[in-house]
């Protein structure tokens, strides 16, 4: 079976939905994607009810990595923020994520506390600080199949040329995948796509800074992986709002059945109840019901 590293070297762009809780993991895993992306924004929001602003700890995030990877047979690239501290912390984080089953870790060059990539107020560290982190990350993993995704947030505050310079340094430091966050035009995407030989990741955030091109268009520009980190979360929040509104209005949920609601039976199957029913039938003294 091909590793994610081998798949990224192929001719066809990979697309990865953002997963943020165990239901999203199980559903995406069943659908047959080549790769999933553990969104920090969505994971922090769903797990802690907090903004993605450096408030989640390494322990919080490792908990999510372990749970998500344990529930999925699909490779998952997991958000590792800034590595949760200094160089020793970066080594500890890389080893923890790899042991937990992640296919790769995303590390970024923001100052701590970091912020979501399409929000205001992001500041980046000195490029050399990130270079040292990436060298430590590459040294700390036990397998080269564990991917190091190097993200720079320099485009928004320092411009595209600085982001390109940083990405070049990060490639030399040992990154497997380059991620220039928040390009703001198709022309910028084109420049990024033709500037590097390594696999390139593009982040598509609905309502964000980067143009909404199709995967085929992104592939033609030179990208190997397109992630859609918050599409599922945005859809789920809108669906919850639509489901709760008639309850609040004292109309109940009859108007939603068959149209807006996922089948209760299908949800039971997605969560693994079939195995529970079979176990009960096998072990019940009366032969099961």
TrEMBL record:
Name of this protein: Carboxyvinyl-carboxyphosphonate phosphorylmutase
Record GO terms (molecular function): oxo-acid-lyase activity
InterPro entries cross-referenced by the UniProt entry: ICL/PEPM (IPR039556), Pyrv/PenolPyrv_kinase-like_dom (IPR015813), Pyrv_kinase-like_dom_sf (IPR040442)
Top-level lineage group: Bacteria
Pfam family, one: PEP_mutase
Organism for this UniProt entry: Candidimonas nitroreducens
Residues in the signal sequence: none
């Amino acid at each position: 079976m091909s590793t994610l590293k081998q798949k990224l070297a192929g001719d066809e762009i990979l697309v990865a939905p953002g997963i943020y809780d165990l239901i999203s993991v199980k559903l995406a895993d069943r659908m047959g994607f080549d790769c999933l992306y553990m969104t920090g924004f969505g994971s922090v929001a769903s797990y802690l009810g907090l903004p993605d602003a450096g408030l989640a700890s390494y322990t919080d995030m490792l908990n999510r990595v372990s749970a998500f990877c344990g529930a999925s047979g699909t490779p998952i690239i997991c958000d590792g923020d800034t590595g949760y501290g200094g160089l020793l912390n970066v080594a500890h984080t890389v080893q923890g994520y790899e042991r937990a089953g992640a296919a790769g870790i995303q590390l970024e060059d923001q100052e701590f506390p970091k912020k979501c990539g399409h929000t205001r107020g992001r500041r980046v560290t000195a490029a050399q600080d990130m270079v040292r982190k990436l060298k430590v990350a590459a040294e700390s993993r036990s397998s080269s199949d564990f991917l190091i995704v190097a993200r720079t947030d320099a485009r928004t505050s320092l411009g595209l040329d600085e982001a390109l310079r940083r990405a070049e340094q990060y490639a030399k430091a040992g990154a497997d995948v380059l991620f220039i966050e928040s390009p703001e035009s198709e022309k910028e995407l084109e420049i990024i796509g033709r500037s590097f030989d390594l696999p390139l990741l593009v982040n598509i955030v609905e309502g964000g800074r980067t143009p909404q091109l199709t995967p085929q268009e992104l592939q033609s520009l030179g990208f190997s992986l397109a992630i859609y980190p918050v599409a599922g979360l945005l859809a789920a929040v809108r669906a919850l709002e639509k489901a709760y509104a008639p309850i609040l209005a004292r109309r109940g949920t009859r108007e939603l059945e068959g149209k807006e609601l996922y089948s209760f039976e299908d949800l039971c199957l997605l969560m693994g109840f079939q195995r529970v029913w079979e176990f009960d039938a096998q072990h019940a003294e009366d032969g099961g019901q």
